[in-house]
Amino acid sequence: MIATTDYELVTEAAGLFDRSARGKLVVSGADAAEFLQGQVTNDVEALASGEGCYATLLDHKGKIRADLRVLRGDDWIWLDTEPDALAAMRRMVRMYSIGREVSLEDRTQADGIVSLLGPASRAALDVAPPAAEHAFVRGEHGLYVSTDRGVDVICAAAELESVRSALGLPEVSEVAAECLRIESGRPRLGLDMDGATIPQEAGLNERAVSFTKGCYVGQETVARLFHRGKPNRHLRGLRLA
Fold first, then answer.
1. 71 exposed, middle or buried (CB, 10 Å; 0-12, 13-18, 19+)?
2. Residue 43: CATH number of its domain
3. Is residue 177 a part of any domain in this protein?
4. What is the C-alpha to C-alpha distance for residues 172 and 110, in angstroms, rounded to an integer?
5. I want to staple 172 with a disulfide (CB 3.0 to 4.6 A). Which of 15, 96, 114, 124 is the partner?
6. For 43-90, how does the pLDDT look when each residue is reduced to its tens digit (9 = 90+)?
7. Starting from the edge strand earliest in sequence, which strands make up the sheet with 51-58, in order?
8. Residue 94 CB contacts under 8 Å (≥ 6 apart), including other chains
C-alpha cells in the first residue's frame, strides 16, 4: 500500500529517492563516442557536451541486453543502467573496444545517484540544469541531470549522506518512485521488459532508437520490424477509472 504522503510529495512538491544501486560506467578516449555509436541504439555522436540520451544495448537478434542513460561530457561519456545489466555493459566495452582508444572505468561503488522527484525538485538546487531531458550541469553537490519527473544528482558515494542532508528533501519509498515511473509510461528492465524483448515491443523506438545513424548491433531486426513488420506484442499502460 503506497503511503499517501509519499505520493503527494512526488506529485505536488518534491521528494528524494536513492538510486545508487544502478550500475555506473565512464567510457573515455579519442574513440569513445565512435565506439558506442556502433554498440547502442541511439545517436551518441550527435550529443554535445552537456547533453544525453536514453538507449538500449541489443544482441544480434535485436533483443534487449541492457537499457541505459548516456551523458556526454567534454572528454568522457557516462553510462548508467540497471544493476543486473551492468555485466553485459562491461563485457560489451571490454570485448569490442579492442584496438580502439577506449578506456573503461567502473564507477558503481565510487559514485551515488539520488533522484529528486516532483515539480519542486529544482528549487532544492543551487543551479538548475537545462529543461531538456538528460541535459546536465555541474553544481555544488555534483552533476545535476534533468529527468522526466525531476532531477538526478550524481555525486561521490563518500559524499552521499552529506548531499542528501544538504538537499533537505524528505526521502520517499520505492513504491512511490515506481508509481511515478509507471504513470509516466516508462518501462523498467527486469519488470516490464527482459532479454526476450525487442525495443518496439516495449514502445522504446521514439526515446531509445535512432533510425538515421549508422549501423549498430541488432539494427537489422529493429529496422526491419519498424519499416516492414508489426511486433507480435505491445507493452501498454492501463488507466483505471
1. buried
2. 3.30.1360.120
3. no
4. 23
5. 15
6. 999 999 999 999 999 999 999 999 999 999 999 999 999 999 999 999
7. 51-58, 64-72, 76-81, 23-28, 103-106
8. 104
